[in-house]
Predict the 3D structure of the following.
Amino acid sequence: MTSGELRRVRANVVLQTNYLHAVPRKGPGLCEVCYGAIDPKYTRCLKCKRMESAARGSLADLVVPITYRIDGQHAHDLRWYKKTDVSGTEAHRRRLAALFWYFRDHHIACVKEAAGLSSFTHACFVPSTKTPESTHPLQELLAPAVSTLCLIDLAVNTDVDSESREFHKDWFRLARIPQGRRPDADVVLIDDTWVTGSRAQSAAYRLKRAGARTVVILVLARQLDAGYAHTQRILGPIRNSTYDLGDCAVHDESQPRG
Ligand SMILES: [Zn+2]
Ligand SMILES: [Zn+2]
């Protein structure tokens, strides 16, 4: 990216800070896997616990949401960027792309540190289960941001209900992981919104079973359900906090502030 493009990306994200919701560090009341709201008596949400036992540990090593999705412009962007037949799609795309590029440039080092990696070897996008024959719009939008990594294409098993909210070991197919820069495959698996995580974790499971050493799920947004009682407790602080460009959910304080 040229310095002019970098400035435009930053300016775009600065404008979004008016309404973006930051993801705090893990702590009581947050699922230690997915950052969803939970009863503070527990460490994981029921969904993550169930997936963990179904997958017998073959899930993502780390899940990092860049933001929370609650309502407002950001939720709107995440909903509409995929549509090709509505006006304004380009602006939705530009905002989400700027958010991702900025995060990549300023916080991917934090993600790698949290996962114990010096670098990623592969990138993968969670495919669309509703339109498996076409490239996911997120991949079209963000593939240039991970172009130095070896891209993995997962195939979709259309026998599984495309709207399922459950974890499925056989939802995605992959014969083997393509040869990357090193024998070990350390994969960043990218998705737009984490609702239950079942789709992203089903994809992580397939990557692990195909031989990936590490899988880190990076999502643009972790959706929060405001109607859920435990969400209510964390909602106030989240709504009142400002999105800090120099911070992230797994921030490594040795990184320069953005
Ligand atoms: Zn969870
Ligand atoms: Zn960071």
